[in-house]
Design a protein that fits this description.
membrane; two-stranded antiparallel ribbon; 3 helical TM bundles of succinate and fumarate reductases; single chain; transmembrane; iron; mainly alpha
Length: about 160
Amino acid sequence: MSTPLKASISVPRSKDLEVNGVKYNRSSSRRNNFEMFAWLFMRLSGVILVVLIFVHLWVNLVGPEGGVNAVDFAFVAGKWASPFWQVFDMLLLWLAMLHGTNGLRVIIDDYAERDRTRFWLKVFLFTTSAFVVLLGTLVIFTFEPCPAGADPALLAGFCTAG
């Protein structure tokens, strides 16, 4: 009679956990509240993003100004002439990028098996996310639909030649 194979399963809260050949370091020196704050941020930013996205969709696609057919260069220029809409769009951009970046960070942690791969994927993720946030913020706050000294043939129809 053969003895049944005994599977060895590590205690989930042990310091060194190994699952399918992948070792996870859960030493107390690495314990901090970052993951709890990241989890909380995902929930709060998700709720705020839902509100911001529906307002964004209503104003840009459904609103009384003519809906989706009215969205053009002049619509965006008029909208970004108001500091309220600049801050609104910046908040939407930042929250969406940070929310998405945090979600991808978790996916990288879950699926990248080697430390070196995980490190470089996160470097690429954080670099591109920072670039998009910086570039988007600059576009929102430095947008000038009628720059002084520009060729009048290249300006939008609502700009006055001056």
